[in-house]
Amino acid sequence: MASGPLDTAGAHQEGDRTGIAGAPGTPGAYSIGKVAGIEISIHYTWLFAVALIAWSLAAGYYPADIPGLGVFTYWVIGIVSAVLLFASVLAHELMHSLVARTRGIRVDSITLFIFGGISNLASEPTAPGDEFFISVVGPISSFVLAAIFGMVAVALPQPGVAGAVAGYLAVVNLLLGIFNLIPGFPLDGGRVFRSLVWGVTGSLRRATLVASYSGQGFGWLLILGGLLRLLGGDIFGGLWIAFIGWFLNSAAESVRQDQSLDESLRGVAVSKLMDVSPGEATTNMSVQDFVFQEADLAAAIRVMGQKGLHQLPVVEDGGGDGAEGGHLRGLISREGVVRFLQCRQELRV
Ligand SMILES: [Zn+2]
User: Fold this and answer.
1) How do residues 146-171 score in pLDDT, each as one tens digit?
2) Among 93, 253, 280, 316, which one carries the catalytic annotation?
3) Is 93 known to be catalytic?
4) How far apart, in whole angstroms, are the C-alpha atoms of residue 119 and residue 100?
C-alpha cells in the first residue's frame, strides 16, 4: 500500500463525477462532524482501506521493521498507523479547502474514501491563479507532514514502536506528496499543470483537454506498472496500483466528457426546448432558481446540477432584478435536455 491514496480536489456537482464518493447525501457516505465549518464524511469504502492498510502493516511491514513483538501488538500499531495515515490525508484535504475558501469558493464537505480524500468544492476555480494555489497546497502539506514525522522519528529512541510509526508516516506522506504531483488531471499535479496551460494559453478548454489526456496516459502507465508487478509475484501491490490507475484513467475521461457535453449544449437557447404549458409545477418552485430564455442549455444544466433540480422556470428578461422583473415563459427539464442530446446523436448533427 506504499503507493498511497489518491486524492482529488474539485467541483463535484450532483455527487462526485467518478461515482465512487462525493457530496454529503451520497449513498454510503456518513458525516462524522465538522472541522472549521467543513463537513467531514466517511464513505464506507474507507473502512476497507483502513483494514487493508492495517493488515499489510501488522502482517508484513512492522514485524520486519521492529521484530520480536506479539501479533496483537502488531495489529494495534497497524490500526493506529492506518488511522494516522488518513488523518494526514484529511489534513492535506483541509489545506485545499481552506485555500479554496480564501479564494471565495465555498467548500461543502470533505469525503474520505478507499483511495484517499475528496474536497467537494461548490464550484470550479474561475481563474488559473486560484486553481494553482488551491491545488499546489495539497502536495506541499504532505511534504510538511513528512518533514514533521521525520523529525519526530529521528528524535525518538530507535528501535522503538513510536519511532517506527513516525518513520512509516514520514515515508508514506512523502510518497503521497510525490504521487499527487504526477501531472495528470484530476490529481493535484494535473490541476497545477492545467492551471499553467490555462494561464499561458488563456483557454480553460484547451488546458482541460491537455491535462485530462495526460491523466489518462498516467492512468494507463499505472495500470501497466501494476500488471507487471502482479506478474512479478506482488499480487496485492500490483492489483492496488492497477486499480488506482484505472480510477485515474476513468476520472480523467469523465472530466473530458463533461466538457464535451458542455460544448454541445452551449449556444442552444433554452427557449428552443422549454415546455410552454408548465401547469401547476411552477407554483411550487423557488423564484431564486431560474434561467432567462436567452440563456443556453449549458447554463441551464449547470444551475440544475448545482441546485440538484430536475427542472427550472424559464423567464423572459424584463430588465428587472431576477425573476420578478420578467414573465414566466415555460419550464426546462433535465429529461428534455437528455432527449435533445439523444436526438442529436441519432441524427448525427
Ligand atoms: Zn490533494
Assistant:
1) 999 999 999 998 778 999 999 999 99
2) 93
3) yes
4) 10
